[in-house]
Amino acid sequence: MLEIKTIRELRSALKEERARGKKIGFVPTMGYMHEGHLALMREANRLADVVVVSIFVNPTQFGPNEDLGKYPRDIEGDRDKAAGVGVDFLFVPAVKEMYSEGYSTYVEVTGEMTHVLCGRSRPGHFKGVTTVVAKLLNIVEPDIALFGNKDWQQLAVIKRMVRDLNMDVEIIGVPTVRENGGLAMSSRNTYLSLEERKAALVLSKALRLAQDMVRTGKTNAGEIAAELKETIENEGLIEVEYLEVCDPESLSPVETIEANTLIAVAARVGKARLIDNALIVPES
Ligand code: PAF
User: Fold this and answer.
1) Is residue 284 part of a domain?
2) Which of 76, 95, 137, 204 meets the CB 3.0–4.6 Å disulfide criterion with 182?
3) Which residue range is the domain that position 53 belongs to?
4) CA 136–ligand 1 middle distance (angstroms)
5) Is 217 in the same domain as 245?
6) Whole-structure pTM over 0.70, yes or no?
């Protein structure tokens, strides 16, 4: 695995790979890798000839009161993990490499889909995500780029950006990897105490409950959401920020579950803000 810090060097290495006819798979990350990241890299390895992974804690996607300064980092551990799953190029740019002096260009998906769910409590977050992802896609020029389904809204917003800007890349969503008990893997799980970690299991339990409710014929989104919220809040230690039933592509609210529907939840558990979701596919 080759570790590269500059855009110029990465571009020149990938130009050679492309000239050899290699298919390039790209996994952007903010590091502090866990099994969820490794699943993305393994899938990239299965689908492409050359795998590029970036580690960049992107300042533009953090709000002023968020955890940018405290975001967990472990570059040495990440290096070993990435090499262990067959990554070819690890791109680790400094902030000034990505955002040079006088930087003033942003990419923004406007409208409802970036203002609902996480967009409501994290204004400007998706503008930071789409800006850095557009830049990274522009630098790497991959054939495919892989993102976790855990950040479903991020995935939906990136798909929209790629479609709207006619970017020549296929965006692939990879299933959420869960710890024993169902907690969705996240770098931010490191903020949880043992007790909070146990309490956080109720999020995936509630999403499984939603699946059972739909299976047994319940279709009223409002009723399902209310029951899930109650289940979660009965656990104590957890404060639901949102629990929404929506269209998986547009993220618009859904009233009756008739077609594929996303149930998305965000909750505060101690110092951590956790998100999770389930795609409900009603039996026909
Ligand atoms: O999901 C993440 O880790 C980040 O939002 C991403 C896509 C790497 C952009 O900074």
Assistant:
1) no
2) 204
3) 2-174
4) 11
5) yes
6) yes
